[in-house]
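For reproducibility, we list the full input for the shikimate-3-phosphate complex.
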Amino acid sequence: MKSFSISINKKINKFKNTIMVDGDKSISHRFFLIASQAIGVSKASGILEAGDIFNTISALRKLNVKILKKKNEYYVFGNGLGSFKIKKNTSINCGNAGTLSRLLCGMLVSYPVKIKLFGDKSLNKRPMRRIIEPLQKFGMSFYPKNKSTLPLIVSGSQIPMPNEYDEKIGSAQIKSTLINASLLSPGISKINEIKKSRNHHEIMLKHAGANIKIKKNTIIIKGESEFNSFNLKVPGDISSASFFIALTILSKNSKIVIKNICLNPTRAGIITILKKMRANIKIKNIKKVCGETTGDIIVNSSKLKKINCPKSLVPYAIDEFCILMIIAAGATGTSTFSGLGELNKKESPRLNIMNEILNKIGIKTIKKKDSIKIFGNPNLNLKNNYIVKSYMKDHRVCMASVIAALSFGGKWEIKNAECVATSFPSFYKLIKKVGGIIEKK
Ligand code: S3P
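The corresponding predicted structure, in tokenized form, follows.
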């Protein structure tokens, strides 16, 4: 994609709007991956059409999965578990998509063929040991030995072994990777969720009729049990919605309605956090769609107070901390976020970078290895020039900076602003719709 910078020189005026954001990224990835293992043709609407998901579609096509788009629906022609056809010297580009690179490894556990997986500059830096070690127990091999980042050569086993694993990080990517490996391994596998994380994978597999059971904190999978194709409606992504929630909260006399958002409690941590900060947020029109909870989010401008964010909420808002830190900068009092160790392992070291951006705009912080204290200023009114570097083309850092510029003022230049297309291609169009002025350079 062609790179460009943007400049923002004006705070947004008050607005009242109703919007819909792009489809949920986690659910969209999972639709293609899970449907490729089902028997028959699965169909989905509302799929996120963004860089990360295009990488998932291309990866599956390379493994001989037929995927078509007709009108606004995607069709995946599944041939059951273990039905990939893998050519010699196959190599798969996962782009920026951590979810694809990890979840796909689990799906290759039963193929004793060498496949190369690699990503872009950012993905090639992200930790893979977290899935390498448990997948080795299923019988998978990774080369070069002792390397723990992409590019990697992976090779499955003819007879993968079922396993039991304690997931302690609170990572849905690890959990889902191991569920994928378990589906292909004969016998019973168990994953004990010591720290809970988003559960879209379990929900979608149940929706598809797969042999997966959840007893308290244990996920039990009976391997080699086929399941049938399914239809899916993908709701809007709360991670994308969060930028517009923030913009509304931080702007005066404004209101937004964001329709049809996935409100799965393992994803809606930001709503709980913002309500604790006294944000004026209401949820309406709650429904269950294909096993997922959805609803409309209604937000009004709010005067926020500080928060001491409970660590238990971190996995349920893990992708929202960039924007939460911007929100805390505009709240009264000193907010504390801890248990953020995972944040520096995302598309960029987000804890360090957001700390740098906050300091640049005059917000005092105290950052430690996995926590940050933010000394908020509800009267923040910026006047200077600010340059936001590319920061590994991190889409969420870029969008959080746009919201800071539109909410706090000043003259901003944001580099590599095309990166929002990784997760939220309609972002700039929607900013324009609510009245934000952005100049493309
Ligand atoms: C995701 C899980 C989270 C999240 C990522 C998407 C998923 O990662 O940050 O954007 O779809 O499973 P971790 O599992 O590393 O926490």
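The chain has a mean pLDDT of 98. The chain has two domains: 6-23+235-440, 25-233. Both points were considered when choosing residues for closer inspection.
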